[in-house]
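Progress narrative, Year 2. Work on ADP-ribose pyrophosphatase YjhB, NUDIX family from Geodermatophilus aquaeductus advanced from sequence curation to structure prediction during this period.
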Amino acid sequence: MRFTGSVGTIRLTVTDGWTTCSLGHRHWGRAGAAGLLVHRDGDDGPELLLQHRALWSHHGGTWGTPGGALHVDETPEQGALREVEEELGLPARDLVLGARSVDDHGGWAYTTVLARPVGDLDPGRLRLDGESTGVAWVPLAGLHQVTLHPGLAGSLDRLRPLLGSAAA
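Result:
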């Protein structure tokens, strides 16, 4: 399915849609979802590349990772790379994948795939789609200064150790 409107083109697949996990939470992505947490070493510690979600989106106005519903037979890594290219215009060739973390809700899971940029990644050169109103490097130590997507906020304790040398 494909819809075109004032915010651009939105493609829907059979796995797009709401579902409820065994914990009673409502989630987007009938086959689960995945996102990409791009990180780098900054002058004052780790920095995360976060997108500012469009107001019309689920948890709009918050900062989080680019991500979304997995397609049928798609691995979390494939889904996360597809989503970051769709939402930020960032191609897989510009990233090196690392660890992943699964937030399992029983019958539904969100997988965060960590990645590092191959070279210098300037957010101002990225091509945003209608799901984002901005993208920026945000210092890990400064996350309290932005309104985080609740899923990312709830996963930070699990993700921090996976940042590797960036968290040292």
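Confidence is low (pLDDT under 50) at residues 1-8. The helical segments are 76-88, 150-159.
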